[in-house]
Amino acid sequence: MKRKLKCKRIQLLDDWSLRTKLYIMFIFCVLVPVVATNAVFYQSIKGQIEAKEQGRINEMQQRIRFNLRNSLDNSLYVSNFLYTDATLNRFMESKYNNQEDYYFAYYDMLSGNNLVRYYYSYQQVNQVTFYVDNDTFVNGGNFIKLNDDIRKSEWYQALMNTDDQMMIYSYFDKQQAEMSQTQGGRKVSIIRKLNYFGKQQVEKVLKVDLDYAFINKSFKNEGAGGKIYIVSNDRIIFSNDAQMNQARKPFHLMSGMSKDEGQSTELIPVVSENWQIIVRGEKLDFLTEIVDSRFNLLLLIIVNLLVPTLLIWLISRSLVHRVGRIATHLDQVKQEKFEVIVEPAGKDEIGSLTHSYNMMVIKIRNLIEIVFKGQVERQALELSKKQAELKALQSQVNPHFMFNTLETIRMRSLIKDEHETSDIIQKLALLLRQTINWGNDLVSIQDEIRFVESYLVIQQYRFGEKLQFVIDVTDAEILEMKIPKLTVLTFVENACIHGIEGGLNDGVVEVRFQKYNEQLHIVIQDTGVGMEKDKLELIRTMLLDPSLERLSELSSIGVMNAYIRLRMYFDERVQVSIDSERYKGTTIRIQIPLVQASQG
């Protein structure tokens, strides 16, 4: 009984016209809510103002969190970049015979390193200092000898007393406060042990000092309407409170401040600590917020009634007219009159319905006019044509005929004592035979090297003394490991065609295989013309998100194709990096876990 009553109510709604439904929606969804809302305007104004103030505090807290996280993330990015810099690590690990050797190595390191560029790119970083336990170093610039005085310092002791490899530490440098009239003695630093490359020859510590004045200034700009405190281990590190911002004095303690029950507190993880963002808002004066409430009430009633009424009338007219037009044409379909609606349809759902109706009418006309049998016959004829073309293409290549022809030319060359030509033909035959006969896509590195060597000999025959090559394998076990076939050859071919061939000078292609840190390293390096910066950035960007669909964006798809095949076999643990400099050459590094390369 209840179900029947419910169905009748729904049927009653379905029977009403669109215009009636829109008027009902206007009365109960606009008119009544507006009158009720304005009736309780005075009673709700206080809550609205409080909510607005709380929202303002929340927005302020979000901005503070964003600015603080941005400053810390930029400093961490500089720290991580320097932490993983191999060139910088070799410079600090090396021993130098005299100061002259040290300065030569120092300037060589700077010329091939991005240290200076990253150091000055971020305003949030004030100073980057490397502390190195290397007696051959000369204090100066960003490098300081790690001596006993530094080991006794507060920040160094804190790093040694923690199990973390990296920490953030805030402290007061009394010596700097006495020497500097502008910066003061407050410091917030990201400190880490430089042990990314495993066991090291010397102890190295990196300290990235944040620009305290710059970061603290951003909090001063948030000074309107509240107090801000950034707290670490009870120390007030940053604040917009002038009493807390005396940079020439030690940090104030939050425990020494009076408590405020209305304050908003949020914890954010920062490296090895949890910092607190504390925001204290000002007390509200509601009397100043209520200005001429009667006038505001009258204005709200006028705006909330007249504007919705006008909109409801316009929307009702649009809906009713177009729905009625569709209904009229559907009635004509019943009489087998398939007329297209030519009036403007619009871009909303009713417009989409009108377009669908027009498409339906057009398709019905086409289906009536098309003879289905003739269409099927044409499709069958087209399929037969495609199959014939495919068979014709397949019959054009006869591998055995090609190999026999190459062998005949080689024997003729031997008879005529043209041994160089004979060797090149033999290498070419080997390349073609291996390309056709390899059933398994995975091959040993020994077979790949033989393949690469054959290709390079052919290219050397072509270029003459312009091309020299070196293939180096540091460990015999590497020869038995397996990689996808043509992987290395693809990069070598790219080096010859795009690197050596386009240059005017002689070039060298070097291929190295070595084991390092449980990974197989394959390096393909050439001294050719290199790549333009835009093209290099495009390839690097595509290496971050490789896909077959994006291959059309590159003029040469060999490198990306090889990288996709490597990822298919070795998942995302394979790494490929490309470095290139115009007119100096290109270097490609491939890193594959030894476990995967050994298993194949």
TrEMBL record:
Q: Could you tell me which InterPro entries the record lists for this protein?
A: Bact_2-comp_sensor_kinase, HAMP_dom, HATPase_C_sf, HATPase_dom, Sig_transdc_His_kin_internal
The highest taxon in the source lineage is Bacteria
Q: How does it sit in the membrane?
A: Multi-pass membrane protein
User: Does Transcription count among this protein's keywords?
Assistant: no
Q: Extract one GO molecular function annotation from the record.
A: kinase activity
Transferase among the record's keywords?
yes
- Coiled-coil stretches are none
The transmembrane segments are 21-42
Keywords attached to this Swiss-Prot or TrEMBL record, sorted alphabetically, are: Cell membrane, Kinase, Membrane, Phosphoprotein, Transferase, Transmembrane, Transmembrane helix
Family matches, as SUPFAM superfamilies: ATPase domain of HSP90 chaperone/DNA topoisomerase II/histidine kinase, HAMP domain-like
Q: Which residues form the HAMP domain?
A: 317-369
Q: What is this protein called?
A: Sensor histidine kinase
